[in-house]
Write a structure and sequence with these properties.
One of its GO terms (molecular function) is transmembrane transporter activity. Keywords: ATP-binding, Nucleotide-binding, Transport. By secondary structure, this protein is of the alpha/beta class. The protein has helices spanning about 45-50, 75, 85-90, 95-100, 120-130, 145-160, 175-190, 230, 235-240; strands spanning about 5-15, 15-30, 30-35, 60-65, 65, 80-85, 165-170, 195-200, 215-220, 220-230, 245-250, 255-260. The termini are far apart.
């Protein structure tokens, strides 16, 4: 299997501080990765490299077979789907849900004046249907609930038929029902052999959907462990990652974690 992402000894340094510190990591085609770690660990920084929006200070990053720095990122970016709050803030609040997804086919966050192809509209409707948004096609993006907004963004990210899908905290801010609904939908996507390779950033093991295969644990910019979920997601590793004693349990195809009581 070819590598979708390959980071070799990558550091990102700002104001003399390494936000990501000598990270080597590879993601093979078809794998579904979770990046897990505490606030400020460097998760979004890693995702920003994977999306080609951030270049390493040192080390090399190869995305979809192209080396960052040696490729026109404007050719690379349409091959990568992204959903996260940074992008959501750039989406016009007055556009409808259908328009929001459809504009992705043309590589834009705005602009409804284009002549959209019927086939693109059919695709946009199909992705929105898959994310449970069919009832809301004509709603304005700015009026959606947090959960509806997240699901619209994922449909939008899939619109360009990406080879790599990046999800930055897709379940953040959702209530229990919203989270579980999203986890089920992500599980279906992760289990689809035709779906792109995926990397999802999260703070919570409860948000790991069935079908995700690998996890990278990061703390203070350094990778603690990376590999298949059942091998890496242990109580000892998660305790080290979050800096307090934690018990991780597997319940069927889901995960939970809780802190030990203070003595
Ligand atoms: N442009 C920047 N200049 C300086 N420091 C930055 C910059 N961008 C991020 N940081 C810092 O780098 C560290 C890693 O940030 P990053 O957003 O990658 O963490 P994260 O793991 O995604 O955190 P969170 O879970 O809180 O979203 C943080 O301490 C953050 O304050």
């Amino acid at each position: 299997m070819s590598d979708v992402l390959e980071l070799v000894d990558v550091s990102v340094v700002r104001d003399g501080r390494a936000l990501v510190d000598r990270v080597s990591w590879s993601v093979a085609e078809g794998e579904r990765w979770v990046i897990l770690g505490p606030n400020g660990a460097g998760k979004t920084t890693l995702l920003n490299i994977a999306s080609s929006y951030l270049f390493p200070t040192t080390g090399t990053a190869q995305i979809l077979g192209e080396k960052l720095g040696g490729v026109d990122v404007f050719e690379l970016r349409p091959r990568i789907g992204m959903a996260g709050s940074a992008l959501a803030e750039r989406l016009p609040r007055s556009q409808t849900v259908l328009q929001t997804v459809l504009t992705a086919a043309y590589g834009m966050t705005a602009g409804w004046q284009e002549d959209y192809e019927e086939v693109d509209e059919a695709r946009a409707r199909a992705f929105l249907d898959r994310l449970g948004m069919s009832e809301h096609l004509d709603r304005r993006f700015g009026t959606l609930s947090e959960g509806e907004r997240k699901r619209t963004q994922i449909a939008r990210a899939l619109m360009t038929d990406p080879e790599l899908l990046l999800l930055d905290e897709p379940a953040a801010g959702l209530d229990l029902g919203g989270r579980e609904d999203l986890v089920r939908r992500l599980g279906r996507l992760a289990g689809d052999p035709y779906a792109p390779s995926m990397i999802m950033v999260t703070h919570h093991v409860e948000e790991i959907a069935p079908g995700f295969t690998h996890v990278l644990l990061i703390r203070r910019g350094k990778v603690l462990e990376a590999g298949p979920i059942p091998d890496v997601l242990t109580s000892a590793n998660l305790s080290r990652c979050f800096g307090l004693p934690l018990v991780v349990e597997r319940a069927g195809d889901r995960w939970t974690a809780r802190g030990l009581p203070l003595t």
